[in-house]
Design a protein that fits this description.
By secondary structure, the chain is mainly α. It is built from six helices and no strands.
Length: 95
């Protein structure tokens, strides 16, 4: 049975939600690690979210999108979970 556009959008939305839940469950994975391995991070997701909203005429500012992606204000997440990048992480990132 072919998938409808509505079903596809619902599945994509649920998959995105599941990705956010997975990232939330793995706060030990730092953004620099995500960038080094996959060339995107939580901040990228926030920027994409904001941009997609704006392309649809919905004003979701970057900081609001960050709160959606991080599950809390970014400053709070950064204070609680973000570690200083080590030399190896920084070296990989600079490539």
């Amino acid at each position: 049975m072919p998938i409808s556009n509505q079903q596809r959008m619902e599945i994509e939305a649920a998959t995105f939600k599941r990705l956010l839940e997975h990232l939330d469950a793995h706060k030990e994975v730092q953004n620099i690690d995500l960038m080094n391995l996959a060339s995107f991070c939580r901040n990228c997701l926030s920027k994409w979210y904001s941009a997609e909203a704006k392309s649809r005429g919905v004003d979701v500012e970057y900081e609001s999108a960050r709160e959606i992606v991080y599950g809390m204000p970014y400053a709070q997440w950064k204070e609680k979970y973000q570690l200083e990048a080590n030399a190896e992480q920084l070296q990989k990132f600079s490539k």
